[in-house]
Design the sequence.
């Protein structure tokens, strides 16, 4: 999607072409609803990572307690 159409990603490459990353268009970042959704998705990813880590630690603790 191009920035001329108000899309999420700008078709220009980042200033470091070796990274190969797309940059966000300023039009998309100016939208407060989009910024809130981006923030919420980041929080959701972090929460999921923490939950998985806690589940793994709990599983290890239970196995250690059960089997010594």
Sequence:
């Amino acid at each position: 999607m191009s920035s001329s159409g108000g899309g999420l990603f700008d078709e220009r490459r980042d200033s470091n072409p070796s990274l190969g990353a797309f940059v966000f268009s300023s039009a998309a970042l100016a939208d407060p609803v989009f910024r809130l959704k981006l923030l919420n998705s980041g929080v959701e990813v972090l929460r999921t990572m923490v939950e998985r880590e806690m589940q793994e630690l709990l599983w290890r603790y239970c196995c250690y307690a059960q089997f010594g």
User: Anything to note?
Assistant: The radius of gyration is 20 Å. Residues 1-14 have pLDDT under 50 and may be disordered. The first strand starts at residue 9 and ends at 13.
